[in-house]
Amino acid sequence: MVSSRRLAREWALKILYQADVGKMPVDEALTAALERLRREFVQRASQVANGSLIEEYFVDAITGYLAASVPHYTAPVEAALRGCFAQIFDASDFWAGLQVTFTFSRNSYEALWQTPNGSDALDLPSDRAALPPTARLSDGLTTADRTRLADFLAWAQQGLPDAGMRAFANEARRGRPQGAKMRETHEYVVQRWKGFTASMSERWPRAGAAVEKHACDWLRVAAFAHELVKGVEEHGAELDAMLRSVEIGWALDRQVSVDRNVLRMAAFELSHLPAIPASVTINEAVELAKKYSTAESGKFVNGILGAIAARMPERFAPVGPGGAELLPEAPIAGPDAELDEQTGDETPWVECSTLP
């Protein structure tokens, strides 16, 4: 298990490393990495679904829609979003009463199914589109936050039934009788649909639990990683000046790239995120340096950050009521992010011999 903020720091380091060593624009590296991170959480949903595609398809659809909300994700938004999930996934009776006519032609034969006339939209009941009390009454939400939540609920009315039908189609395709004629295929699909809708009273709430878990975990990690990366980018000159003020014997640009970016992230946390205790920031930075850099990097990072923090005695005092409200830590199951991870993405990722 790894905490949501530690995983976010690892992904933020990955992004800053690519921008520093690979000379990739920060926004490009950020967008590519957050999409990779999103797909990782979709994959996690599929791994716990016990052969069902519903959880995977719903997490994919919802996180894909919510990706644009990452920079605006806060603790009040998360509370309101959980209320939206509870409202959406309290509609298992929708599937039980859903009437769908399956029609086949030679052109649609491989698709296995079509909604009536091939175009009729399937929509959740309209009462699912109203903002829940957690969104209407929260003092921590801005007008823009409420607008984004309302837009999400409006999208979910049709977006989730569409995702559910895609999941059904692919589940049905997996078990399709080989060599079956069109009539036999039609009968098979109709029977699969009856079983699908009959099981949705159980599967729909379970899918809702998976969506809430994996979507909120992903948003926590992505939002904090985004905050770190954009913070280092926007305050880069200030952070580098802070680091150069500590006498270390060589220029900042001659340091190992991983160390340099770990220090920049930690300096941003120390100077701009007072709700995070300085001791936590320093410990996390030391662990990152030990994991991804040289054998001596932990001590090196600890010494520099300790010197900087010594100039900020207020950072070791308890945070009062005026401190920023942070998203709480959450344990995230699964492998840690690797800086030299290779995938089939078109975006090239720079490798460094100092990284594991």
Attribute tags:
356 residues, mainly alpha, N-utilizing Substance Protein B Homolog, Chain A, two-stranded antiparallel ribbon, disordered C terminus
Could you walk me through the main structural features you see in this protein, from its secondary elements to its overall organization?
This protein has about 350 residues and is mainly α. The protein has two domains: about 25-225, no CATH class; about 235-320, N-utilizing Substance Protein B Homolog, Chain A, CATH 1.10.940.10. About 60% of the residues lie in helices and about 0% in strands. It has twelve helices and two strands, in the order βααααααααααααβ. It has helices at about 5-20, 25-45, 55-65, 75-90, 90-95, 135, 145-175, 180-235, 235-245, 255-270, 280-290, 295-310, and strands at about 1-5, 330. It has a two-stranded antiparallel sheet with strand order 1-2. The longest helix is centred in the middle third of the chain and has 53 residues, at about 180-235. The two termini are about 20 Å apart. The model is unreliable at about 115-120, about 320-325 and about 335-355 (pLDDT under 50).
